[in-house]
Specification:
- The structure holds two protein chains of two kinds.
- By secondary structure, chain A is mainly alpha-helical.
- Chain A contains four helices and no strands.
- Chain A is elongated.
- By secondary structure, chain B is an all-alpha fold.
- Chain B has helices spanning 2-32, 37-51, 53-88, 90-95, 99-132, 139-166, 180-189, 194-211, 217-248, 254-298.
- Chain B starts with a helix and ends with a helix.
- The chains are: A mainly alpha, B mainly alpha.
- At the A-B interface, helix 3 and helix 4 of A face helix 1, helix 2, helix 3 and helix 5 of B.
């Protein structure tokens, strides 16, 4: 609950900063954003993910973790890319997102390989 | 004993419950990250293919092994049986068995091994491809393969019943009116292969009731159990797939429930093929038992 107020306070601070020192605004915005992201992740997201995972612990080993971790990675990539776009680096954001997608797919590769083997065992010739 | 039953049930039912929990998790993630939906769909399909394809592939493998062993047993046995029929001469005329019928039933097993099973697997693979890549639709082809397979199997069953009624000595002694309601029940409640199932069971019943004159009822019962157990197991698994598809349909993506449903439908056709095999097995077993009994009585 307190995190919501903290986020609001940071937002107001940034607004004030954009009036007081427009030249400093981009660098301050990025720095504050990264700090807040770290804080919110460690206080909200990671505990929540651990809770959900402990609910799903009956599932066979990699899948629940795989799904949650890849969703988290995707979310981080989207968030940071949005921030980069805000600063005007659209192409860089695109690159960042693509690399993150490849990272997620690399995490999935062992499972995909298993699927290919299962299907291959079905082929009768 | 209860532990044993529990593990048996857990092995069969477990994957389906796990699928539901996994669907719950993916729903949660879809709710937070709508953009991630395509990725969750892919991961779910991978999960299903790894977890649920295993029981289905197991059934396929089991039927393959059974067909192979029956077919090779026949290859070794047929000359022997033919020689025995020739040697027994007059004794054999009493039963009015037809060696051609034996050839036919075993030929059906051969046909199933070389032709029906590969086609059914192709249908399953086409279904999987369609669900993995929804833009390229191959469902019509898979359905065509499945329905033509069913047509072939039912034609074979019809041929069986013609053979058996023409067999003369193997007459229908059980009262037909008694099990008519049961047949109707099966026909209406088992999708796709209900009527085929009742026809096959009717043929088997007609044949084996003719043989009760020579066999004890328990012998018949044990032959029936051994022959029909794999088919019944596959029928149970197929029903599980269809039930799961029906349960998850409202809250899962279309491809996920569709894939589960498709696997179930393919398993029903596999069950029809396995009934064909069990008929060949029952026929051969009763044939041999009757034959040996008659030979010993004749001596």
């Amino acid at each position: 609950m307190t995190v919501i107020f903290q986020l609001l306070v940071v937002y107001l601070l940034l607004l004030l900063l954009s009036f007081a020192a427009p030249a400093l605004h981009p660098i301050m915005y990025t720095a504050l954003f990264l700090l807040v992201v770290m804080y919110v992740f460690s206080t909200v997201f990671i505990p929540f993910a651990v809770n959900v995972l402990s609910l799903m612990e009956k599932l066979p080993a990699p899948y629940a973790t795989l799904l949650l971790v890849s969703a988290g990675l995707y979310y981080v990539a989207e968030l940071l890319a949005l921030q980069m776009k805000d600063e005007g680096y659209g192409a860089f954001a695109q690159l960042f997102q693509t690399v993150m997608k490849i990272v997620i797919l690399t995490l999935w590769l062992p499972s995909i390989q298993k699927v290919i083997e299962t299907i291959h065992a079905l082929i009768p010739w | 004993m209860p532990d044993f039953l529990q593990t048996l049930l857990a092995d069969v039912l477990g994957p389906f419950f796990l699928l539901m929990v996994m669907l719950l998790l993916s729903l949660l993630i879809d709710f937070f990250l709508p953009h991630f939906q395509k990725w969750t769909r892919l991961l779910l399909l991978i999960f299903i293919l790894l977890l649920l394809l295993e029981p289905a592939a197991d059934s396929f493998r089991q039927i393959q092994v059974i067909t192979h062993s029956i077919a090779s047993m026949f290859l070794g046995m047929y000359p022997l049986i033919a020689a025995m029929v020739l040697a027994s001469g007059a004794t054999f005329g009493v039963v009015n068995f037809q060696p051609a019928m034996l050839l036919f039933s075993q030929g059906a097993v051969f046909f199933a091994e070389k032709f029906l099973l590969p086609i059914l697997m192709t249908a399953l693979l086409l279904d999987i491809l369609t669900r993995l890549q929804p833009e390229i639709v191959l469902t019509k082809m898979a359905d065509l393969l499945r329905t033509s397979l069913l047509a072939v199997v039912s034609a074979l069953v019809a041929a069986y019943s013609i053979f058996i009624t023409a067999g003369g000595a193997l007459t229908w002694t059980m009262s037909g009116t008694l099990n008519e309601p049961v047949k109707e029940l099966i026909r209406q409640n088992i999708p796709f292969i209900g009527s085929l199932l009742t026809d096959t069971l009717g043929s088997i019943g007609r044949y084996s009731s003719g043989a009760t004159a020579y066999l004890s009822i328990w012998m018949l019962f044990s032959i029936w159990t051994v022959a029909l157990l794999p088919a019944l197991r596959i029928l149970g698994i197929a029903f599980l797939f269809r039930w799961t598809a029906a349960i998850i349909e409202p809250f899962s993506q279309r491809e996920v429930s569709g894939l589960v449903d498709d696997i179930g439908r393919t398993l029903f056709v596999l069950c029809a093929i396995s009934f064909l095999l069990s008929f060949a097995f029952i026929y051969t077993a009763i044939f041999i038992v009757t034959f040996i009994k008659l030979m010993t009585i004749g001596k």
